[in-house]
Amino acid sequence: MARLPRLQLAGCAQHVIQRGNNRAACFYHAADYRTYLAFLLDAALQHQVAVHAFVLMTNHVHLLVTPADEQGISLMMQALGRKYVQYFNVTYG
């Protein structure tokens, strides 16, 4: 069964969870966490999403974010995912 569409409202804070593929580890070393946060900052600024809080676990991430427009979170997460996956694959093969 397909997932129901998410409600996306500009100016409304949302809790976002991002998990590793098959719940595998996303972060192995301190440099991975720093890189993810740098990419998050870039994507948040580019797509006008305020990041209020974050928790980086070894295999998933929690974010509390507020978008300036309805597509902000989706675009931010897509940009962040593409960039971090490339970094991760290059770094760990």
How much helix, percentage-wise, in residues? 40-55%
Instruction: Return the structural class.
Output: alpha+beta
DSSP helix count?
A: 2
What shape does the CA trace take?
Answer: globular
How does this model look, in words?
With 93 residues, this protein is of the alpha+beta class. Helices cover 41% and strands 24% of the residues. It contains two helices and three strands; from the N terminus they run βαββα. Strands 1-3-2 form a three-stranded antiparallel sheet. The longest helix has 21 residues, at 72-92. The radius of gyration is 13 Å and the shape is globular. The mean pLDDT is 93.
Could you name the key traits of this structure?
alpha+beta; 2 helices; 3-stranded antiparallel sheet; 93 residues
Write the layout of secondary structure elements.
Blueprint: E1 14-19, H1 30-46, E2 49-56, E3 60-67, H2 72-92
Antiparallel strand pairs: 1-3, 2-3
Helix pairs in contact: 1-2
Summarize the structure.
With 93 residues, this protein is α+β, with helices and mostly antiparallel strands. It contains 2 helices and 3 strands. The model has no long low-confidence stretch (mean pLDDT 93).
